[in-house]
Design brief:
This protein is of the alpha/beta class. It has 14 helices and 9 strands.
């Protein structure tokens, strides 16, 4: 199978589906390093105590190169893209014969190019399985009530700082710290909702060329009563693997107590082999996270102090701003299914809609040249067609 040239932007290209509709080819990377939303010139640890999230990776971190898609993978992406474009309604629950409601703009925005690719990789490039799982996740997000998990509702769970988003690992993955010893509530559904909420905020803070996170778990001073129950462990594995596939880039666990291994032996069978490869037990976290981005309590150089009144509003304000910018870019790009996350997050990649229009213009120019060479007297009509191609992206190709 032929592969596309790495680090070459092919977003001008477009292929044609069986119904004649132009479909963007799923190339994954622009050339050069992407720009970071709201980046600053800060590249060293700020003086004093850190009480708010870092807004961007430092130079010690770098985005990993993207592997270009093969021709076969591109074909499968385009097939899944056409299937997802046909989604018009989503069940409100996972029960059989559940009522359905029209798909929302927020759900269509969630169906990005990279989202589709994550589900394809998770299903070993099975288009039918990926489509079924995407619809399953859309249903789960409705039934679980993600839109109702507000910062005020979740706030009590994080009053002690038992989960903190701070810094980026070597590959620019945002780091989500889990500190079980700071457990402050009794076992309940809200504890799992808290984790889902923080996963969503971590995703908000991902840069334009990174779509996975680093999980940093420190069991220091944790008692057996503070660890999650077996049922919670299974539920966590279920929604991580089924509804956040390919999102876990690395998981580092340190200061592991004896009772953890018994728990891991019970939940281990529910963890797929590929995820197990990402788990690092009792390794120095400095090997995976630059010291300038890592808390001192975890072997780094950042003097972090959790103050709920300071950290919680700062985190949510930053995440809200990122989501608002992404929504504005999605609307500007034509409100398309299959939009580029690099574009949405402020990277140096054009919107998929703009790429399709440019591809159509190139095809029209080629047609004009051929007509000129063949002496066909319709050059004026072809040139007028080029002018028509300047219409907004959402009108040029419907998704």
């Amino acid at each position: 199978m032929a592969s596309m040239e790495q680090n070459k932007p092919d977003l001008d290209a477009a292929t044609t589906a069986s119904d004649g509709q132009a479909v963007p080819i799923a190339t994954e990377q622009p050339s050069g390093q992407p720009k970071i939303i709201q980046s600053s010139t800060q590249d060293t640890i700020p003086p004093g105590v850190q009480r708010t999230p870092f807004t961007h990776p430092f130079s010690a971190s770098s985005y990993p190169p993207k592997t270009p898609l093969t021709d076969e993978q591109t074909m499968k992406y385009n097939s899944l893209y056409n299937t997802v474009c046909s989604f018009t309604a989503v069940p409100i629950t996972a029960t059989l014969n559940s009522p359905v409601e029209p798909i929302t703009d927020a759900e269509r925005m969630w169906l990005t190019r990279e989202c589709l690719l994550r589900y394809l990789r998770a299903t070993k490039w099975s288009v039918p399985n990926a489509a079924n799982r995407l619809m399953g996740t859309l249903t789960w997000r409705r039934e679980y009530g993600l839109s109702k998990l507000t910062q005020d509702y979740i706030s009590i769970e994080n009053e002690t700082g038992k989960q903190v988003i701070l810094g980026y690992d070597n590959d620019c993955r945002p780091c989500l710290y889990l500190n079980p010893s700071k457990q402050n509530t009794k076992k309940s559904d809200r504890q799992l909702q808290h984790l889902v909420f923080m996963l969503e905020r971590t995703i908000d803070l991902m840069g334009p060329a990174q779509d996975s996170l680093a999980l940093l778990i420190n069991f220091n001073e944790t008692s057996s009563g503070q660890s999650p129950s077996l049922a919670q462990g299974r539920q966590t594995m279920n929604f991580l693997q089924n509804h956040y596939p390919e999102r876990l880039g690395r998981a580092c666990v340190i200061n592991i107590p004896w009772f953890f291994w018994g728990f891991y032996k019970l939940v281990g069978p529910f963890i797929d082999p590929f995820t197990k490869q990402k788990l690092k037990f009792n390794e120095e976290m400095r090997l995976h996270v630059p010291p300038s981005q890592l808390m001192k309590t975890h072997g780094g150089e950042v003097a972090f102090e959790y103050s709920h009144d300071t950290y919680w509003p700062a985190l949510n304000k930053l995440a809200d701003e990122r989501r608002k910018l992404q929504e504005e870019r999605w609307i500007k790009g034509g409100k398309r299914v299959g939009e580029s996350e690099v574009y949405l997050k402020g990277g140096d990649e054009r919107s998929v809609g703009e790429a399709i229009v440019n591809g159509e213009k190139k095809a029209a120019k080629k047609s004009v040249k051929m007509s000129d060479e063949n002496g066909v007297d319709d050059i004026t009509e072809k040139v007028q067609g080029l002018q028509t191609a300047e219409v907004p992206a959402q009108e040029a190709v419907k998704t």
